[in-house]
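EI: anyone free to look at a 749-residue chain?
SC: sure, send it
EI:
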Amino acid sequence: MSSTLSAEEIRVKREFNELLENCVRCNKRSDKAMIRKAFKIAYNAHKGALRLSGEPYIIHPIAVARIVTQEMGLGVKAIIAALLHDVVEDTEFSLEEIENHFGPKIASIVDGLTKISGVFDKNSTLQAENFRKMLLTLSDDVRVILIKLADRLHNMRTLGSLPTVKQMKISAETLYLYAPLAHRLGFYSIKNELEDLSLKYRYPKIFQELSDKVKNQEKSHEAFIKAFARPIEEQLDKNGITFEISGRYKSIYSIWNKMQTKNIPFEEVYDLMAIRIVFDPLPQIPEKTQCWNIYSMITDIYMPKPERIRDWVSTPKANGYEALHATVMGPQGNWMEVQIRSRRMDDIAERGFAAHWKYKTESSQESELDKWLKRIQELLANPNSDAIEFIDDFKLNLFASEIFIFTPKGDTRTLPVDSTVLDFAYEIHSEIGHRAIGAKVNHRLVPLNHKLKSGDQVEIITSDTYRPRLEWLNNVVTLKAKTAIKDALKAENKNRIEKGKKLLEEKLLEIKLRPNARILQKMLLTYDISTKDELYSKIGMNMIQLDDLENVLKQNTKNKWVNYWSLQLGKTSSRVRKPALTHSHHKTSRQSPVLLKENINDATTDYSIAKCCNPIPGDNVIGFRDANDEESITIHQAKCPTAIRLLSSHSELLVPVKWTTHKLLSFLVKVAISGIDRFGIYNDITTVICQELNVNIRAINLSSHDGVWEGTMDLYVHDAKDLNKLAMELGKIKGVDAVKRVEATPELI
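SC: here you go
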C-alpha cells in the first residue's frame, strides 16, 4: 500500500477489500471485476462527501453491500446496486450511465432505491411515497426491498451521530415499517437488531438498564443451558444425528415489549432463553419426520407442555419460516423452549427471503411468501391509492399470524388470524367481495362479519344489487379487502360529489346566482360542514335539500364552525381547563422545545392533549402540528403507537415539547390496583393516598372475592413524578400486589 495514501483512504481500501474477501457468491473473476468497477464509480461520485459522523461517505455504501452479501446472502447484482444506491440521488451520475455500465437490471434496482423528488399528493408525505415506490419494485425485483433494509440497518447502526429529534424520527419509522417488513420477509436477526436499536435511541436509559440486567445473568444462563443441553446431546449422539445446539437469548426489545404488554418487571419475564437444535438431515427421510423424531427423544428426557407445541414444519409461516417449537420442563423446574430445525430450515430462518429462493426448484409448490408478494403486487397496481392509507394498512398485515381456509372445492387460502367472511370474499376476487351478502361456513349460514377459524370451509353468497358500505371497513382485517373497499367507496363518493356540485350550480342559476367562495362559506357554516366536498356529497345523497336555498343564503349566520383542531383548543369550562402552551404565534423552531406550562391564568389554548394516550406533566412527550393550521399542536406520549405512526409518516410536523413544573393544577388519572385481601387494607390504602401523599380521590371502586381484591381509583395528581411516587408508596402496603396507570380522560381542575 502506497505511503502517500491518507488514513481515510487506507480505511476505505481496507473496508472494500474485506467486502471482496467475504463475498459469499463472487466466485468468478468477472464478478469481482464488476464489483471493483461499481466501487470506483461510487468512490469518485462521493469523493469529498462526508457523513455527519465525519467519516467518508463511501464507507456507507460499502457497509450496505457487506450486509447484503454477508448477512443476507445476496449475489453480485445486489452488491453492485448497494454500492451505487445513493449515486443517482446524491451526485451528478445519471441512471442512463448506470444502465450503460451495468445493464438494465441493475439500473432498475438503483432506480427503485432512488428517492422521489417533485410534486406529491397534498394528502401524502414524501416518506410514505418513498416507501410506496420502494414496494412497487416488488413487481420487478424484490432485491430493492432487501437492499433498502440493509441501508436502514446500517443507518440505525450509525444513528448516534445525528441530532436527538432525527434519532427519534428515524427510530419510530424503523419500528413502524422496517422491522415488521424484515420480519415478514423472514430476516429475524435483522428484525431483532432494528427493534433493539430503535429502543436504544427512543429510551436510552431503559435500554441500558435492560442490557446490563441481561449481561449480569449471562454466566448463570450459560451454566443452565449447558446442564439442560447435556442429556439431549448424549441422546442425539447415541442415535447418530449430526447436529449443533446453542442457546438463544430474547432480544432487549422483546423483553421490554413483554414487560409493557403484561405489566411485569424484568424478573418475571421467564422465557429469556431458548435452546436451538440444528441438524443435518439424513437422506431418503422427510425432514418433518426427523424433526418429530428429535422431539420424541427430547420428551423422553424432559416433560413437555402440550399446549405450547408450535408445528411450523407441517404448515410453514407465510414468510417461509419452518421449525418445530416445544416447551419442556427443565431440571430446575423452569420452562424452556426448544427449537428444532434442519440445516435448510435454519438457513431460511437466518437469511429469510434470500435463502427461500436458494432452495426453490421448478417442481416446488408456490410458497405462502410467494402468494403474499403476489397479493402486495396486485394492491400496488392501483396508482391512485393514498400512500398514507396504504402504508397504515400494509403495516397491519406484516405481523399477522395465519389461518387456513378451504373453498367449496377444497382449495386452501391463507388469511391472517381474526379474518372474517368478508376478508375471504375479497381474497377470492374483488368483485365477489363487493357483491357479498353472507356466507355458508361449514354449511351453516353466517353474516359477513363472522370470524373464521383455521380449517373452516366457506362458500360466499352474492347479490348483483349489493355494493360496499363504509361500515364494512370495521369488518375486515386484510390489506386487500380494506384497499378494495376504500377504492369502491372513493369512486362512489366521487360520483356523489359531482352530482351534488351539479345540483347546487343548477339551483343557484335558478335564483340568478353563481357559486363563489362567500356562498359556499355561508352554506358550510349553516350546515356545520367542514369541506366543500362533504357539502357536495351530502347534496348528492339528498341529505341536504336545496328547496330553501334562497332563505338560507339570506340568513345572518354567525361563524359557528371551526376546524377540528380549533374545537380541541377552544375555551374550556370553569371546571375543566387544559394547560396552556407558551410560545409566540410564529412557527416554532425545531431546535427549541415548546414549553408545556400549567398556567391557569393564561387563556391561550393553542395545543391539545391527545385522547389516545392522555399524557400528564412529567410524561415523555412530543408534539405534532396540524397540517392545516401551524398554530395548533397535539401532545402525545412519546411511546404512544399513534405518535410512532405519525413520526414515521409525518415527521415534518414534529414539534419538540417539554413540561415546565409548578403545581397549580391537578390532572385526573385512573389507577388499577389489586392484591391479597386482609382486614383493614382499604383503610391503609386511603390513608397513604390522602394523608401521607396529600392526593385527592375523585372516585374509588374496590371489590373483594375469594381472598383477593381488585379495583380502580380516579386520583388527582400534579405530574408523572407524583404518580410514580404514589405507586411506589402503595406498593409498600402489605397485601398490595400491583399498581398501574390505566387510560382515563385527562381532566384539569
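EI: Residues 564-659 form one domain.
SC: 👍
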